[in-house]
Amino acid sequence: MESRPDSPAADAEAPEKFAVNRRRALALGLGGAAALATAGPAWAVTDQRPGAVRPPSLGVHDRLVAGRVSARRALHHLRHLSERIGPRIGGTSSERTAAKYLADELDDLGYRTTLQPFTVADKFLGQLSSRPGLPDDLNWQVGASPHAALDTRVTGRVVDVGAGAPENYPADVAGKVVLVDYVAAQRETLVATAVAKRVAAVVFLPADLAEPRRAQAFSPTLPGSATSPVPIPVVGVAQAQKHRLRERLAARPLTLTVATSAHRGLTSHNVLAERAPRWGGQHSPVVMVTAHYDTVIGAPGANDDGSGTVLCLELARVLRSLPVDATIRFGLWGSEEQGLLGSRYYVAQLPQAERDRIVAVYQNDMVATSWDPATRYWLLSFDGLANRATDEVAAAATRLGYQPRISPVTQRGSSDHQSFQEVGIASANFSWRGEESPALLEPPYHSPEDTIEKNISLSRLQVSLELIGTAAYATARRP
Q1: pLDDT for 333-366, tens place per residue?
Q2: Which has the closest alpha carbon to 464: 434, 430, 435?
Q3: Three-state DSSP class for 290?
Q4: DSSP E strand boundaries for 98-247
Q5: Is the distance from CB of 275 to CB of 327 less than 8 angstroms?
Q6: pLDDT single digits (tens) 412-444
Q7: Which of 417, 403, 399, 402 is nearest to 473 (CA)?
């Protein structure tokens, strides 16, 4: 977080100009998920919700949504994205696999589903492995330096050389994999020392960040080596991976395999699915529910933003057959983590007449963390002002009995709502975060620990489904 749709243009030219049929765009051979047994919500529609200050006061239309959405059903999709696919790096095969899964699911629900391709920058990835295996509660994808050996694989005994100065190296280090504390200003000197010592690979370990933040995996740049690449792999791990490596090495000798790969000439995709109202579909107002489905390097992305993605899938299931007076469109953005690339591309391709059709965009980014201090549900607006999206969610919170847990409208960008608000489209980002500030994000944020087990609350996901579902449906009924 802090994003493939075809153009929603209703006129005859726009879809052909801006979209690629999603089955033509991706032919990856991964089928949709198996059917999940019906799973109801965690509480009855009239029950007081966990953390709410009073029982709900829901109208008949609210009940059509709140009584049907199910976090447990959404969890099925989240397991596929976060555990079977894992990190979904913009433009790579993992993101394409996720896109096909999402598009297949939306197709099966009866939506008009298309993909919107756009080019993105090259990616440089690494993978660590060991026998016996590394702890399996972390993902071991890491970043690889674009200025070092790529598309290669080396194995060696691990030596921790700490600060990485020449005097920190033992005499018998040749052919081994070294752990080196990363200091940005010294990175090229540190690598030169390692090469001179004839090591097999360098694993850079980041400095710990102040809690609750934890450093993420990274691709070390070595500008001085751009024209003459370093002859060994150089990778950058996340803080959680660093501590596990050092703990394992302290307990017993460790042999590590370091594999690197270059991913070039990449195309990312946005996934779009829509259903029009019975009357006036081609020119009807549009209500959008959105999320990004890509991740940062090494992060399984259970909460960021697998949670928002599966919220969209579950709401797509519930809203597909309810009567509406607006087009309901789901946008799942590729390459958000590289700078909102998917949503910005999507908005840039929309003719002004199509932008004008959009009544509200409900962007969901990190809506299910289990981190205890994340007790406030934030209404985040890029310009800091209320709009149709924030108003509808605040009203839904009142009807659901949650008003005191909802923040005032607060200024913050850094997610895909910004792309829409930059061109004057009503949009907001919705997310569970720390009570005092939207900057208080959970420790697993952008880390290998962003897993279902460590970072997903079904009750928070359920509340998010009800808040966004009732708000979006209210907008679609009276746009």
Answers
A1: 999 999 999 999 999 999 999 999 999 999 999 9
A2: 430
A3: strand
A4: 112-120, 123-129, 141-144, 152-160, 177-181, 201-205, 234-236
A5: yes
A6: 999 999 999 999 999 999 999 999 999 999 999
A7: 399
